[in-house]
Amino acid sequence: MTLRFEAESREIHRLLVAELGHTVIPAMLMGVALVGVGVATWHEVGDRAILLIGLAGGAAALAKLIVIAHQRRAGAGVNPACRELAHAITTYMMAASVAMLSAALVIRPDPGCYLAAMAVLFGYCCGLIGRLSIRPWIAAMALLIAMLPVAVASALIPGAPHRMTAVILALFFLNGLENVRHVHGAAVRQLAMRLDLARLARNDPLTGLLNRLGLREAFDRRGAGRTPVAIHCLDLDGFKSVNDRHGHAAGDAVLIEVAERLRAAAGAGATIARLGGDEFVIVCRDIAGEDAARALANRMLQALRVPFAAGDAVVRLGASVGYVVGAGELDDLLQMADDASYRAKRAGGGMVGVPMTLAGHA
């Protein structure tokens, strides 16, 4: 039997580890169950060892609740790998408590103790598969820790029913591993689809640049409305003829190359978006004023003057750029930069529009 778990991206791993913070009720109920069974068995048969094991299980559950509380309080500030390790340790502590309690109950001659052992073991394992399969290496190891001692204890007790119990536990373990694989794979695929949809909602699918929604969220997230920024609006000159003469596939290739050149010209700190067609917007926070904004506009124009490959042909394009330097609402800044770009296009294209600095914010 070969198990292959679904591959995870870093973002999916972070989201799955974050889900471990939503296991408060299962951990609390399992802790209560372990303590309750330990106390009840001690009261009925006077076995102090079983009482101590039950209390140890309650302490393990409490440790897990502390880990969950710390995770919720710290938010995203904790390394996911460290957070996952803490969950693994406390989960293994609980699994060991379940194993010792169930094994101690199984070897007692009282049928009631045997039934209690199976109830504790199967209840824990079913909950484990349902809630912790999102971290398969934790779930698989916890299943092994919880079930192996009970299976061994059952196999060592004389009698066919006990040996049959050991076989059933082994089969349940294998089935549990398969369920862990299935639940984890489904969770990974669902999250991957959700992240893909989120990217499609915020990014231009052709160039990978932000779209209008993504640009607005990036602008708001960085607090750009409160600090001066430079916004450049850029329209390609002559792009329509590329589609008309060489086809849309060639036009798409040109747009992809335009996006790459704008990234290189604007630098890593810039936010670049394609708002549709051949219209691009570049937002830069680290701009020292109009001179720096004009220099960036010239760099972009120079980058776009280099010929483009359009299928088997080579085409030359120009661009009209308008920019504004200042602080304010995104829509207002875009409108000013777009007006400047339009004036540049009316002047013949390939020119930097008149800068429009917001008063008091330069």
UniProtKB/TrEMBL annotation:
Keywords, ordered alphabetically: Membrane, Transmembrane, Transmembrane helix
Ranges annotated as spanning the membrane: 20-43, 49-68, 89-107, 113-130, 137-157
Keyword hit for Repeat: no
Ranges of residues in domain GGDEF: 227-357
Pfam families, sorted: GGDEF
NCBIfam families listed in its UniProt record: GGDEF
UniProt protein name: GGDEF domain-containing protein
Species the sequence originates in: Sphingomonas endophytica
